[in-house]
Amino acid sequence: MYEKDPNITHIKKECAFVDDHTLRIRKTEGINSDDDTYITGKKIFVIAGARPTIPKIPGLEGTPYMTSTEVLRCPKTYKRVIVIGGGYIATELGYYLGKTGSEVTFLVRSGFVKNEDIQVQEEFTKIFSEMFDCHFKIQFTKVEYNNEIFKVYVNENGEEKVYEAEGLFVATGVTPNTDVLEVKNAGIELDNRGYIKVDDYLRTNVPHIWSWGDIIGRNLFRHSANFEGEYAFRTIFEEAPKGIEIKPIDYPPVPHAIFTNPQIGGVGLTEQQAKSKGIDYVVGLCPYKNSAMGDALRSKDGFVKLIFERSSRKLIGAHIIGVEASNMIHMCIAFMQFGATIDDMLRTIYIHPALPELVRNAARRALPNF
After folding, report:
1. Which is it for the CA torsion 340, 341, 343, 349, positive or negative?
2. Distance in angstroms (rounded) separating the CA atoms of residues 331 and 311
3. Which of 242, 268, 286 is the last residue in one of the domains?
4. How many domains, the chain?
5. pLDDT value at position 7?
6. For the stretch 139-165, what's the b/e string if a residue is b when 16 or more beta carbons lie within 10 angstroms of its beta carbon?
7. CA distance 128 to 48
8. What is the pLDDT, as a whole number, of residue 3?
């Protein structure tokens, strides 16, 4: 794609800031040398994302463990794989490893999908633990790798244990690439987590440098990065040259999905967030099995959960776990975007016997609680 556009020069190399207008193109990754080349720019956009965080477990460094990058490019199937982590990357790719033939064991420090609504966490843990060997409240002691076998030493609920497998997948979060880019050389300010600080126009403290996506740490999703990129290019290259007043970026409800089994889709506040904000709210929850399509699919698990603000009657959170959750959540995204109330949702006609009737059913169950 890049090669077809005469206005784009694609340099597939690691780079780092020299100053606020100059970037060093490294000949060798991670090393500055006299053989490096340099480019300059009047405007610079930093969209360099994040990389997997590697926990400091004694013995891990130097072993052939996998991150998300290696899992997706792994040329073979391991008989057994240990997964360290319980977030969306761990559960998505851990499920993938299991369905491609590996016996998968999850070692989780606290719990699965901790950013989700508490009832979604509980439902997911119940279902996922029936499919895989899952262990919680894990403290990691050390890792050994000998004769093509990993040994992971842990303290599990106060008991010392060792888990063995041919493969080890580490999925414990992400780290912004600001250190690799040496953004300090450009005078770019970072927050206390190492992410780039930007204003409401996605501009850094250096006036001619903008940034968005994972590297600013607001929403670690491709779709939110796309939204930010569209805003940046529209305002910087279309509106500003025409003298149009630039408005701050205005985020609509930012949804997310976890593509594992069961699928998860969510938008807006979780119940625990609503509580922490002191919001007086109403909940409606409908299990998949209590719908025509859910019954036809023989669904035993999963539900749609809706959270409404009592005073305004508006939908402020929606959380779905089950079949097609990533698609189902989209109608709730639209409802929230346009400020729909429970009354608006119940005046909507839902196709029978489609799965979205679950959203209507959850709203019906919330209504008596107002």
Report:
1. positive
2. 22
3. 242
4. 3
5. 87
6. ebeebebeeeebbbbbeeeeeeeebeb
7. 33
8. 76
**Pair 152, 138: CB distance under 8 Å:** no
Residues of the chain scoring pLDDT < 70: 1
Alpha carbons 330 and 185: distance in angstroms, whole number: 42
Q: Are residues 16 and 75 in the same domain?
A: no
Give the end of a domain, one of 131, 148, 173: 173
**In this structure, is residue 56 part of a structural domain?**
no
Say yes or no: 115 and 164 in one domain.
yes
Alpha helix ranges (H) inside 100-145: 118-131
pLDDT of residue 204: 98
SS3 369: helix
In a domain, 53, yes or no: no
Q: What is the C-alpha separation between 154 and 156, in angstroms, rounded?
A: 6
> Which residues, 6 or more positions from 219, have their beta carbon under 8 angstroms from its beta carbon?
225, 251, 254
Per-residue pLDDT tens for 37-58?
999 999 999 999 999 999 999 9
Distances (CA, A) of 178 to 147, 263, 332: 37, 32, 35
- Structural domain boundaries, residue 315: 256-369
Between CA 315 and CA 318 the distance in angstroms is: 8
Q: State pLDDT tens for residues 213-243.
A: 999 999 999 999 999 999 999 999 999 999 9
- Euclidean distance between CA atoms 31 and 135, whole angstroms: 40
In angstroms, what CA-CA distances link 262 with 38, 216, 284, 337?
48, 30, 20, 26
Which residue do the tokens 């625990």 mark? 272
